[in-house]
Specification:
The chain is of the alpha/beta class. The protein has ten helices and 13 strands. The chain starts with a helix and ends with a helix.
Length: about 325
């Protein structure tokens, strides 16, 4: 366990870290309202709208978490040349995040997830998006932009935030991971199904249970220790990664690295919304590793951070001060 004085030093070190986030950005749009009756047109609730709000989502929410923890994020991503894209850039500016790594593409829409919420729960979500891979020409443009960022900035860790929306391709992964390993830059991955087996040689691979089951094409009972350990060992061997961090929702986190293996139980929370928890976990883990902590301590702190954001409705970044208090209390 980490003692308070050590934790203070670690969180202080976050301020000197630069983190590159490569991934699918999106805008999270919220419609807040109240349900008072059922529609006469169909058996669905009528939501009386009280408020609307747009927030940064996807890989941009990872950047917000990095920023909230005190480090400096750099985003490399794509958006469409549309109204939603302009709103997205406005949100970046409002959060003091750079748009230098954002490429506009006229043949793709900006990803927008609209959540309609009433009585503190989500009623429905509407997605506007495409999930087609970008072209090889576009991929080379993105790779060049990433390498320019790596050349211009001291980058301490790279986060691949993959939502299967088409930015991250096998070619992009292999070239950037190879470059990062040559330069000694930590790479951490929040994967999805399409590129699941392409992240060979990264430092930390962080699937959730569904992603692991889909990736390995097996069923896993999270309460059966042998099933979890065997599946993680298989995955670690296949990818040749240093560590696998499996998030198991209410069952906590299982971490296996070159140092060994450990199960970290979940902490009791009043869960309001799990949206964005994975973004918080990967951002926190990346910063902890870049600050010099091992995979076990990084996972322990990231597990706490992910739980904290689940207490809020909607996608929100982690509260640094509260996270520090909880770590110290442990």
């Amino acid at each position: 366990m980490i003692y308070p004085i050590q934790m203070t030093d670690i969180f202080e070190k976050f301020k000197s870290l630069n983190i590159l986030i490569i991934g699918d950005v999106m805008m999270d749009s919220y419609v807040w309202g109240k349900v008072e009756r059922v529609s006469p047109e169909a058996p669905v609730p009528i939501v009386k709208v009280r408020n609307k709000e747009n927030r940064l989502g996807g890989a941009a929410n990872v950047a917000l978490n990095v920023q909230s923890l005190g480090a400096k994020p750099f985003i490399c991503a794509i958006i469409g040349e549309d109204k939603a894209g302009e709103e997205f850039l406005s949100l970046l500016k409002n959060q003091n995040l750079s748009d230098q790594g954002i490429l506009k593409m006229n043949d793709r829409p900006t990803t927008v997830k609209t959540r309609i919420i009433a009585h503190h729960q989500q009623i429905v979500r509407v997605d506007e998006e495409t999930d087609e891979n970008i072209s090889e020409t576009e991929t080379e443009l993105v790779i060049a932009m990433i390498k320019k960022t790596l050349a211009d900035q001291k980058i301490d860790a790279i986060i691949f935030q993959d939502y299967d929306k088409g930015l991250i391709t096998e070619n992009l992964i292999s070239k950037i991971v190879e470059y990062a390993n040559e330069e000694g830059i930590i790479t951490v991955v929040d994967p999805k199904k399409r590129n699941f087996h392409s992240y060979k040689g990264v430092h930390l691979f962080k699937p959730n249970l569904k992603e692991l089951q889909d990736g390995l094409k097996i069923n896993i009972n999270p309460t059966v220790k042998e099933q979890v350990e065997n599946s993680i060992s298989k995955l670690k061997s296949q990818l040749g990664v240093r560590a696998v961090m499996l998030t198991l929702s209410e069952h906590g986190v299982f971490i296996q690295s070159d140092l060994g293996r450990r199960h970290i139980p979940a902490h009791k929370r009043d869960i309001a919304d799990v949206s964005g928890a994975g973004d918080t976990v990967i951002a926190t883990a990346a910063l902890c590793l870049a600050a010099g902590l091992d995979e076990f301590k990084a996972s322990e702190i990231a597990n706490l951070a992910g739980g904290l954001v689940c207490e809020h409705v909607g996608v929100v970044p982690v509260d640094k001060a509260r996270l520090m208090r909880e770590v110290e209390e442990l």
